[in-house]
Specification:
It contains no helices and nine strands. By secondary structure, it is mainly beta. A hairpin with a 2-residue loop joins strand 1 and strand 2.
Length: 138
């Protein structure tokens, strides 16, 4: 859910990528699949639906990294906060999921959140709040 002020855009990957992720601007390695795809866990989305779609890293990408980049968001203020809530699954094999913030005046991406795989093999949920006085991407 990409929330800017009172509006909230849900992104469920059922038909495609959502508006926040530029039209199928996927780096190699990301695939859109569901639990029935025969590619191993997870076998359903976070709500237990095995036919619902989510994004997954292909097995060939286990040893390297792949990025998802949002469209440009406008600056935040008291009326326009940005909260992004997402569900994620990291198997114990996979490494680290990171969320980065890139402001338009900066060349570098600042890491604002991360989590690593553990032995639980389950969906987790997280919400991050972003404050930026200039346009930015996540």
């Amino acid at each position: 859910c990409f929330n800017s002020g009172s509006s909230c855009e849900k992104c469920d990957f059922e038909t495609d990528l959502c508006k926040a992720l530029p039209e199928l601007n996927l780096q190699p390695g990301w695939i859109r699949r569901n639990g029935q795809s025969g590619m191993g866990p997870p076998y359903s989305d976070h709500s237990g639906n095995d036919s619902a779609y989510f994004l997954s890293l292909s097995s060939e990408m286990r040893s390297s990294s792949a990025t998802l980049r949002t469209n440009v968001f406008l600056p935040t203020d008291e009326e326009h906060i940005c909260q992004i809530t997402f569900h994620y699954w990291i198997s114990q094999m996979s490494g680290t999921l990171m969320v980065g913030l890139q402001k338009h005046s900066e060349d570098t991406i600042t890491n604002i959140w991360q989590d690593s795989g553990d032995l639980q093999n389950r969906w987790k949920s997280n919400t991050i709040t972003i404050n930026s006085t200039e346009k930015y991407e996540v």
